[in-house]
Amino acid sequence: MTGWNTGDIPALDGRVAVVTGANGGLGYVIARELARKGAHVVLACRSEARGSAAVERLVEEVPGAAVEPGRLDLGDLAGIREFAYGLPYERLDLLVNNAGVMALPHGTTADGFETQFGVNHLGHFALTGLLLPTLLATPGARVVTVSSFLHALGKVDPRDLNSVRRYGRWTAYGRSKSANLLFTHELARRLAARDDAWDVRAVAAHPGYARTGLMTAGPRAEGRRLATGLMGLASRVVAQPAEAGALPVLYAATAPGVPSDSFTGPSFAMWRGAPAPSRRAPWTLDDAMGERLWAASERLTGVTYEALRT
C-alpha cells in the first residue's frame, strides 16, 4: 500500500454507500471520493441543512455525482431506526461509520447514554445492526468503523460503560474509540463463524492527526477560548489535511484484499502519511471483552443481530 492514493480506488459503479457524518471534514472527503469513482453515496448527517449543503457542494466538485442527503442523529435511537428503515436500496456495499464527537463536556444522548459512548459506539452499533440484513444480501460488502490512535487513552470498562462513576472527557473519548475497535473485532469474529460463506468484512481505520473541526468542538462547547485557540493552532501547524486523513479510511473501504478485523492508519507514527497497518491496544482484540461489550450494546440499544447469533 506504499504511496496509495485516491487514484488507486477501483471503479465503484453500481455500488451503494452510506457515510455517516459526511457534511464536513473526513466524512465529506470520503463521500466525495467514493462518488467520484461512481458509487451512489448517502451522506448521513445530523443536520438536514448541512447535509443538503454538502450535497450541493459535492455535485459542484464532482458533476454528475450520484449523492443524496439523509438525516441521521446517532444520539437518538428512534432517529437511527427511522433512517435505517427509510433507506430504499436492496443492496448496501459499504457502510462507513465515520461520525463522532471528541472530548466533550459531560452530557447525555436522547436515550440517556454518555454522549461520546452513545454517539461514537452505540449509535453506530445500532445503525450497523439495523442495516445488517441489507449488508449480508450484498456480496463483498464492508463495514468500516473509524476509530482513533487515541483509543489507547481509555480501556472499555463493562461495569461503567457510561462513565457514571467518574467522567474525564479524554478518557471517555478513548473508551468510545476502543469500543469501536472491539465492535469491529467482535463483528468480524461473528461473521467469520458463519458457515454460509457470507463475504462481508468488518474493518477499522483511523485518520491519524487530521485537520478537522473535531479537536476544537469540546473546548468551544465549554466557551474555553484559550483551549479552542491552542487546539486550532495545533491543527493548522501539525495536523495533516482532511484529504490525507481520509486516505486510510478510503483504503480500508475500497482496496482489494483488506483483511477482516484489520486496522489501517497513517504510516508515520500513526500520525500522517500513506495508509498502513496500524498498532492497536491489546484489549481491542480481547474476545471475552468483545462479547461482553456486544451483549451490553444489544441490551442498551435494543438492536439485536439475530443473523449473527453465536
TrEMBL record:
<dbReference type="GO" id="GO:0016491">
    <property type="term" value="F:oxidoreductase activity"/>
</dbReference>
<protein>
    <submittedName>
        <fullName>Oxidoreductase</fullName>
    </submittedName>
</protein>
<keyword id="KW-0560">Oxidoreductase</keyword>
<dbReference type="Pfam" id="PF00106">
    <property type="entry name" value="adh_short"/>
</dbReference>
<comment type="similarity">
    <text>Belongs to the short-chain dehydrogenases/reductases (SDR) family.</text>
</comment>
<dbReference type="InterPro" id="IPR002347">
    <property type="entry name" value="SDR_fam"/>
</dbReference>
<dbReference type="InterPro" id="IPR036291">
    <property type="entry name" value="NAD(P)-bd_dom_sf"/>
</dbReference>
